[in-house]
Amino acid sequence: MTRPRFSFSIAATDGKARTGTIAMRRGDIRTPAFMPVGTAATVKAMRPAEVRAAGADIILGNTYHLMLRPGAERVARLGGLHGFMGWDRPILTDSGGYQVMSLSALTKMSEDGVAFASHIDGSKHMLTPERSMEIQRLLGSDIVMAFDECTRNGVTHDEAARSMERSMRWAKRSRDAFDAGVDHAAGAALFGIQQGSLDEGLRKASGQALVEIGFDGYAVGGLAVGEGQEAMFACLDYAPGQLPEDRPRYLMGVGKPDDIVGAVERGIDMFDCVLPTRSGRNGQAFTWTGPLNIRNARFAEDMGPLDPECGCPVCTGWSRAYLHHLVKAKEILGAMLMTQHNIHFYQSLMQHLRDAIAEKRLSAFAQAFRTRYGKGRQAD
Amino acid sequence: MTRPRFSFSIAATDGKARTGTIAMRRGDIRTPAFMPVGTAATVKAMRPAEVRAAGADIILGNTYHLMLRPGAERVARLGGLHGFMGWDRPILTDSGGYQVMSLSALTKMSEDGVAFASHIDGSKHMLTPERSMEIQRLLGSDIVMAFDECTRNGVTHDEAARSMERSMRWAKRSRDAFDAGVDHAAGAALFGIQQGSLDEGLRKASGQALVEIGFDGYAVGGLAVGEGQEAMFACLDYAPGQLPEDRPRYLMGVGKPDDIVGAVERGIDMFDCVLPTRSGRNGQAFTWTGPLNIRNARFAEDMGPLDPECGCPVCTGWSRAYLHHLVKAKEILGAMLMTQHNIHFYQSLMQHLRDAIAEKRLSAFAQAFRTRYGKGRQAD
């Protein structure tokens, strides 16, 4: 049986929340989904099999990082990102637009795109909608993101409008360039990205512009850029509803566990964030009673697991005392185990959310989660 | 069936080489054996299950590192080193004598022992034969090493003699202190350490002194300290023969693959070395055609495995090009995979040596190994 290029089916809804499945050539993606971030062709400190065992159906790769090292053409010569890194399920790649602005030096924006110097070796590069589509095609991405400008937090209405309008022109160029890569487009999907800062009217105009172009899925971009959870949720009270109900909605770069729960309640289906991996390397563990920092001296002789409610290989195999020791001693195994637990925690949270939606008890689950998680967070 | 405290049976010999089994409470150790080094309660960048899957029957823990962090008393309160790190098979601990001299600051040697300051936080400590035995007991070590002074390379005959004689007095104090820890001694083994630098007469006297005290096994100490392979092999031409034939002989801190092959031919049964783990983190891979440095640009688009003759999960899962990328990008997964391959390579080498001895073809195996491995080494 041939698997579909891209098909999204919603199995159940609960309020604005939905649970379902995205079916693609390389596998199914259960939604709401959390995508671990595999920046440089690796989910940091994890083997692909460990990422999969944690429950991930899809991972994210970064166009900006991969175009600089090892290079998109090189990845293509080596057979594509999947074979290169040993992950045979779907990969979503971002467009490079966000990171070129946050990481590179000497950027110069124009209507054509962004010229910049590599943060690794200073080499000069140019990202345009067309080049971004080409890179994502060379990588062999399953879900390609349109090239956009991530509008900064705190800009004026006029700046937000001009930025959004440029992103919409780039969305059209992305669509055209993606479709021109016929062989790749036959097996991959393209997502558009809604911008418009925190302005409901601009968000609506952006959503309409994207729908007019037509995409397989739609991302809410430009959030989690410093506006705070309250402002983000206020925007999510209307933004997902401005995007087609029968298409997956992806909230880029989000987020903390309580961000995810609130966004799922508001109709978001997909997430990515470096938090579980980056925090893990820094000694922070996510638990059902809030985050904890394993470096804290109170864990030095704590023989309990990181999270007593977690069944992951880390929580069943080692104590907080051991993880405290590893992280304090800067042992690589500390980063490995903390990351593994955190990815398990995030995937477990998504499974709980999917189950709660399917059983129409999301509100009760979310309320109970916030109460316990928030209390733990304050106590830490 | 109760497992023995310590029993060494030689299944076959080939020239001076032997293959057999050490049976202990926590498991069998196939000899010749290579013990991966788990310095700070972790074989760096590997989970215990991965170390075991590579073929290791026993690992080594470092008394010096563990006494400073997390501390021997703390490990004891947490139930011992095995449970702490999740390795349920035998652990050999060194005595701390070597590393206190090479790593710590402000050391002061006396007949009693060594006073020193921690390289981590400057705290003051004292290691004596009695304290070393106590620490190894607190850790729950299966094979305890006598506390000795590792004689430096290049000393005069008189210095070597005085150092060796002190080590022999410390060996007796170690034996007495080990035996006084009755509960631990009932399940663990104690090894003595031969010193005497590169002097055959001193080595002989040291061996006799140790045998007079009586140990479960005997280490050849004070080699691989800068004397070079030729001088080391010259010493190994007589040193193992000065130790009891019916007891395991352990060459401490060795070594490169060709060192191990030559030492096995000279009657050594056990080895430990940081080389496979440390080299792995630095981008060096061991292969049957010699070591290679994966950072080399010629591997950037090499789709072959690290070692075409290796069946380890790394060689069957990823290309040289991918490992090159990971190591260049300083990704943790690079250290994980390079280390995993190297530990597999070392364990595979030991299995080949055991098989060759059992089939009385060690000389041919060793000659073929040296030819291929040495050629590759020169080419790199």
TrEMBL record, chains A, B:
InterPro entries assigned: ArchSynthase1/Queuine_TRR (IPR050076), TGT (IPR004803), TGT-like_sf (IPR036511), tRNA_ribo_trans-like (IPR002616)
Could you mention a single GO BP entry for this protein?
tRNA queuosine(34) biosynthetic process
The protein's role, per its UniProt record: Catalyzes the base-exchange of a guanine (G) residue with the queuine precursor 7-aminomethyl-7-deazaguanine (PreQ1) at position 34 (anticodon wobble position) in tRNAs with GU(N) anticodons (tRNA-Asp, -Asn, -His and -Tyr). Catalysis occurs through a double-displacement mechanism. The nucleophile active site attacks the C1' of nucleotide 34 to detach the guanine base from the RNA, forming a covalent enzyme-RNA intermediate. The proton acceptor active site deprotonates the incoming PreQ1, allowing a nucleophilic attack on the C1' of the ribose to form the product.
The entry's Zn(2+)-binding residues are C310, C312, C315, H341
Superkingdom is Bacteria
Q: Where is this region: RNA binding?
A: 253-259, 277-281
Molecular functions per Gene Ontology: metal ion binding; tRNA-guanosine(34) queuine transglycosylase activity
Gene Ontology cellular component list: cytosol
Catalyzed reactions per annotation: 7-aminomethyl-7-carbaguanine + guanosine(34) in tRNA = 7-aminomethyl-7-carbaguanosine(34) in tRNA + guanine
Q: Which residues belong to any copy of the tRNA-guanine(15) transglycosylase-like domain?
A: 16-374
Pathway, per UniProt? tRNA modification; tRNA-queuosine biosynthesis
> NCBIfam families given for it?
Q_tRNA_tgt, tgt_general
Write out the similarity annotation: Belongs to the queuine tRNA-ribosyltransferase family.
A family per Pfam: TGT
Q: How does it assemble?
A: Homodimer. Within each dimer, one monomer is responsible for RNA recognition and catalysis, while the other monomer binds to the replacement base PreQ1.
Gene3D superfamilies from the UniProt entry: Queuine tRNA-ribosyltransferase-like
**Residues where substrate binds:** D94, S95, G96, G97, Y98, D148, Q195, G222
Q: Catalytic positions? A: D94 (proton acceptor), D272 (nucleophile)
Lineage of the organism: Bacteria, Pseudomonadati, Pseudomonadota, Alphaproteobacteria, Sphingomonadales
- Give the co-factor note: Binds 1 zinc ion per subunit.
Q: Which cofactor does it need?
A: Zn(2+)
What's the name of the protein?
A: Queuine tRNA-ribosyltransferase
Q: What is the species of this protein?
A: Sphingobium jiangsuense
Residue intervals passing through the bilayer: none
Give the EC number.
2.4.2.29
What are the UniProt keywords, alphabetically?
Answer: Glycosyltransferase, Metal-binding, Queuosine biosynthesis, Transferase, tRNA processing, Zinc
